[in-house]
């Protein structure tokens, strides 16, 4: 039984690397730059070099490493094949095979970054102790990950957990980045909340501290105003909460998770966000799922390396 | 390696039993009555007797049987525990343990009936060849099942695949059997379609053969009228198709299946139903999932015994 495992989280500007014990203890983390030039051809070799250097530094033998888990910003199927990762200048890539070859045949598993974050939160974060989880990540966009029986649901096209593109408002006329209309991402991402806020302020006379911000309004400003009792912020967050709570209730009808984890930058608003969402979730949820806990993610930017590493451990 | 496996599908009036080869060939099927008296205490002993009698009749040894799979009309978790099955007069029951004890320790697995039907359709029906599937069953109610990596997603409360209670119309005022409002079941079950039809006919002047039926209108009558070019039936089926197609698109964002299977009595309308639903599915689906095939279930009432048996075979 190996004692170590690596978790690698590839972003558009830097690669986060983690060396873990197989019991989930993070021993060390570091970053290397993501070299996207030449079609990103150096990214995997750079990662392999960094892993090998860390093993040499620590005196870790190859047979004491369970393997290397890697996540990337793009759709990865359950065979570890990526179809495209625009931010890395990658097209189709068999990540598992290429990285394993660079590492002398070491075990490698690959996943989408949001899916890995969900697995990380299950292993060591907000969903610790569960094996079935829905995670939604509220950032610039809305991502997500579904964990069933301790494993990522990658999906037939690597689109498992793409819950940000669930249509929650068929009548919406604005177009989502994905080309559809009325996606959850358009309502509950950081930019989506700003959109809801601007729409609300333009169509209501409610006095609000948010008006002074004009164009510089942000999701954080909306939640800050809510905490100060701002009536417009209350209405805006209510709309956000309705969309997200109802959507989570639908997802729960599909996979009936033990726990729902909310992460991403927007979730820094804290428990007040969870309370609002939970209210609408419980209204709309199927009776058997009404008490499913909704919790904050707790690993922040480390969720990816945790989840990537966990893929190698049963 | 055992050659035989039993699949048992327990309904409120009869128990369907199937003897299969482990390669999926159905050798024989038969029914026994469901004795619901005395809290349904005889149901599992009756099943055990019937299985043992069939083994004796065919000269099948216990070690040549992979096990017995059983499905029931109620929520079953991934340990094979039922919380309640009203139609069987059962409350909490550890089905796996009780039936295995009756069978001298033989391997037993248990599932919800709609979930087993989904697994059956994956093994030998409309979803044959896939390992990741969403099934929706349009009957008196709307049930469903989710298969990930060849296994039923039972869910933390046995509510995996309870897609009939996804809220698709938050503004709906009529109450669903589950106590919520605007469930998919209220729009797309056999009774839901009748409800849509009555509402449509009451609020439009469109001439329609459906009007002659008065109160005796049925989902079948609506689809029959559609096939005859009835304009009101077209509008009613369009509304049904919008609800179901959009809901399936949301489910696909969650688990990204290889195939979506539509079964149940309403699906006897055939390909014209699939075509209507697929149109709205493709409009609303995330780009990676737009081409996911939507197909008709093909096992009819045998889906349950197939899926129950399949649980014992990897």
UniProtKB/TrEMBL annotation, chains A, B:
The Gene Ontology CC terms held by the record are: cytoplasm
What does the record list as GO biological process? glycolytic process
The superkingdom of the source organism is: Bacteria
- Membrane-traversing stretches: none
Recorded GO molecular functions are:
ATP binding; glucokinase activity
Cite the EC number.
2.7.1.2
Keywords on record: ATP-binding, Kinase, Nucleotide-binding, Transferase
PANTHER family, from UniProt? BIFUNCTIONAL UDP-N-ACETYLGLUCOSAMINE 2-EPIMERASE_N-ACETYLMANNOSAMINE KINASE, ROK (REPRESSOR, ORF, KINASE) FAMILY
By sequence similarity, the record places it as follows: Belongs to the ROK (NagC/XylR) family.
Q: What is this protein called?
A: Glucokinase
């Amino acid at each position: 039984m190996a004692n170590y495992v690596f978790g690698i989280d590839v972003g558009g500007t830097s690669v986060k690397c983690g060396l873990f014990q197989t019991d989930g203890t993070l021993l060390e983390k570091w970053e290397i730059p993501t070299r996207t030039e030449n079609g990103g051809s150096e990214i995997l070799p750079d990662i392999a070099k960094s892993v090998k250097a860390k093993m040499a530094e620590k005196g870790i033998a190859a047979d004491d490493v369970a393997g290397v888990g890697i996540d990337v910003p793009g759709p990865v199927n359950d065979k570890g094949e990526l179809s495209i990762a625009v931010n890395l200048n990658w097209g189709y890539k068999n990540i598992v095979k290429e990285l394993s070859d660079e590492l002398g045949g070491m075990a490698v598993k690959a996943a989408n970054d949001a899916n890995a974050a969900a697995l990380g939160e299950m292993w060591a974060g907000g969903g610790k102790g569960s094996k079935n989880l829905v995670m939604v990540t509220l950032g610039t966009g809305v991502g997500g990950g579904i964990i069933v029986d301790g494993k990522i649901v990658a999906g037939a096209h690597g689109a498992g957990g793409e819950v940000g593109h669930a249509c929650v408002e068929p009548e919406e006329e604005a177009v989502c980045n994905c080309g559809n209309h009325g996606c959850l991402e358009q309502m509950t991402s950081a930019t989506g909340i700003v959109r809801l806020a601007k729409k609300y302020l333009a169509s209501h006379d409610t006095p609000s501290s948010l008006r002074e911000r004009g164009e510089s309004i942000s999701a954080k400003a909306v939640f800050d105003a809510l905490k100060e009792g701002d009536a417009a912020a209350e209405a805006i967050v209510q709309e956000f909460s309705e969309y997200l709570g109802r959507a989570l209730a639908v997802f729960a009808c599909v996979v009936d998770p033990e726990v729902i984890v909310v992460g991403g930058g927007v979730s820094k608003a804290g428990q007040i966000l969870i309370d609002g969402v939970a209210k609408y979730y419980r209204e709309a949820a199927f009776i058997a799922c009404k008490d499913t806990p909704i919790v904050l993610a707790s690993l922040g930017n480390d969720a990816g390396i945790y989840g990537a590493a966990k893929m190698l451990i049963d």
